Amino acid sequence: MPDTSAEKASAQRSLTKADIVAGVARRLDFTQVQAAIVVDSFLKGVVSALKKGEEVEIRGLGSFRFRSRAPRKGRNPKTGERVEVPAKRVPYFRMGKELKAILGGSGEPS
């Protein structure tokens, strides 16, 4: 049976910051403003640590780490001109064991 457009839209929906704020407000019996302050503070803390080059680990969820990318030759998409792309460190998310177990369908982590 084909999916309806409503089912497709809900299947592709993303969790937004507003959704997280609403969940925090509901769970902790906070106002939306109070919950937004909590969520913003958390996110600013993560971003601040990453800006300093620190790794961020959130038990049960995962960690934000850095990978080094080698310099390479790229292309300007507008002009087609070849350009040098310098080496850089880029953040990436590594899923924790608990989250991997939940999403992998194996239940509780061992």
Q: Helix proportion of residues, in percent?
A: 40-55%
In the CATH hierarchy, what is the architecture of the largest domain at level 2?
Irregular
Say how many strands there are.
5
- Helices and strands, in N-to-C order? HHHEEEEEH
Backbone shape: elongated
CATH class of the largest domain: Few Secondary Structures
Radius of gyration, in Å, reads 20 Å
First-last Cα distance: 38 Å
Number of structurally distinct domains: 2
Q: Helix count, per DSSP?
A: 4
Fourth-tier CATH superfamily name of the largest domain:
IHF-like DNA-binding proteins
Task: Please summarize the sheet with the most strands.
Answer: 3 strands, antiparallel
Enumerate the spans where pLDDT stays under 50 for 5 or more consecutive residues. Answer: none
User: Roughly what is the average pLDDT, rounded to an integer?
Assistant: 88
Instruction: For the largest sheet, list the strands in their spatial order.
Output: 1-2-5
Proportion of beta-strand residues: 15-25%
Q: By helix and strand content, what is the structural category?
A: alpha+beta
The third-level CATH topology of the largest domain is HU Protein, Chain A
Explain how this protein is built.
The chain is of the alpha+beta class and 110 residues long. It has two domains: 1-54, no CATH class; 55-110, HU Protein, Chain A (Irregular), CATH 4.10.520.10. 43% of the residues lie in helices and 25% in strands. The protein is built from four helices and five strands. The strands form two sheets. It has a three-stranded antiparallel sheet with strand order 1-2-5. A two-stranded antiparallel sheet has the order 3-4. A hairpin with a 6-residue loop joins strand 3 (72-75) and strand 4 (82-85). Helix 2 (17-28) crosses helix 3 (32-51).
